[in-house]
Design brief:
0% strand
């Protein structure tokens, strides 16, 4: 991946994490509640991580084969569990959303833990 693409991916991840954190903290009445719900179930009521990632991919025009390849290129060293069959376009898109969602999940937990720890 070229440096400019890495920078774009990092911006995407940072923007996604900020948006997602704002959303779940507001819906969960605080960071501690959001963190608890997110750790219990990434698609819990008010969290809906997978729906967020799907909408984000649409907003950033990544819901296509080229977008999936961009995401997967940035995350090429990460492992994901995936069992699927079908058109390559669909499989790439599903893999990209899953890999990005797993990274966003981890980054969000980390950021919430830090904000709660600092706020004490």
């Amino acid at each position: 991946m070229e440096l400019y693409q890495k920078q774009q991916f990092d911006f995407l991840l940072m923007s996604a994490a900020e948006r997602f954190i704002d959303r779940i903290v507001q819906r969960s009445a605080g960071a501690a509640n959001a963190l608890e719900k997110l750790k219990a179930d990434r698609n819990a009521d008010g969290i809906w991580l997978d729906d967020f990632v799907a909408a984000l991919f649409g907003d950033f025009l990544l819901d296509n084969t080229a977008g999936a390849v961009f995401i997967l290129s940035a995350l090429e060293r990460r492992n994901i569990e995936f069992a699927g069959a079908g058109k390559i376009e669909k499989i790439l898109s599903q893999m990209a959303r899953r890999a990005f969602a797993e990274l966003l999940h981890a980054k969000t937990i980390e950021a919430l833990e830090q904000s709660i720890g600092v706020g004490r």
